[in-house]
Specification:
Elements (H helix, E strand, L loop, with lengths): L22 H13 L8 H8 L3 H13 L3 E3 L5 E3 L2 H6 L4 H18 L2 E7 L4 E8 L15 E3 L4 H8 L9 H9 L2 E4 L6 E7 L9 E8 L4 H19 L1
Antiparallel strand pairs: 1-2, 3-4, 3-8, 4-5, 6-7, 7-8
């Protein structure tokens, strides 16, 4: 039985392949992107269906990725991500991640919320670079690093947009975030979850990033906003 179903099917890559690009490499990267949504692995057939290629093509892609330790097969022939990805990812924003971790841990424990570091992936998307869960909260929001979301939905993306000059037709929430110093959204990415994020000061252009929390609804939103802003400023000062 296929593990891919409409309810849990991951969003397809927004990358459009053109004649200047390698279609084979595109499909290989699509395999890795697909597997991020299935930590327990997928069959070769499911991977072929997921990226829209013949099973033989999927098999060749997987064998190549296995050779580079970017994916692996278990004893049940299910394909999962490989440890080689850790080596590739290690240099990415290493200073930012190293400095951010203790700040995120302190923020998560102080607020009882899941804290996250999000970077701008492109003009239209943001990606979660680091996610830290609170150690003492009985219930908390859970999601994985690497998750990609639209930049114009959710507090992380809106806080990044709010750090840029105003543009015509922007959402009211962006204007409010610019005036308040942090963005706040309610149930935009995950139902019943409040998101509060502030941009990390001092970063520009493609390096824009935000720090924030995701928490089930609370009555003390202003206090949480102040905690997030203080944490973002602290991280920004350490990056100078």
């Amino acid at each position: 039985m296929s593990e891919l179903n409409e309810e849990h099917r991951p969003r397809k890559s927004a990358v459009q392949v053109d004649t200047s690009m390698s279609k084979t490499l595109h499909h290989g990267l699509a395999v890795l992107e697909l597997l991020t949504s299935y930590p327990h692995g997928l069959s070769v057939t499911d991977i072929a269906d997921g990226i829209g290629v013949h099973r033989t093509v999927a098999h060749r892609l997987i064998r190549t990725l296995e050779a580079h330790h970017l994916c692996r097969k278990d004893s049940f022939k299910r394909v999962t991500l490989g440890a080689g990805l850790v080596t590739l990812a290690e240099p990415v924003e290493q200073d930012l991640r190293t400095l951010a971790r203790p700040i995120l841990e302190a923020l998560a424990d102080a607020t009882g919320a899941t804290a996250h570091l999000v970077v701008r992936e492109s003009e239209s998307e943001v990606r979660a670079l680091m996610v830290v869960e609170p150690r003492s909260a009985k219930v908390h929001v859970a999601f994985h690093p690497g998750q990609v979301d639209p930049i114009n939905r959710g507090s992380a993306g809106l806080s990044i947009l709010a750090s840029l000059p105003p543009v015509g037709g922007e959402r009211e929430e962006i204007t409010a975030a610019r005036a308040r110093g942090y963005a706040m959204t309610d149930g935009e990415l995950i139902p019943s979850v409040l998101g509060i994020s502030a941009v990390i000061p001092g970063r520009r252009g493609d390096a824009l990033a935000s720090l924030g929390i995701s928490v089930f609804d609370t009555d003390d939103r202003d206090a949480l906003g102040a905690e997030v802003v203080a944490a973002a400023r602290n991280l920004g000062s350490m990056l100078r």
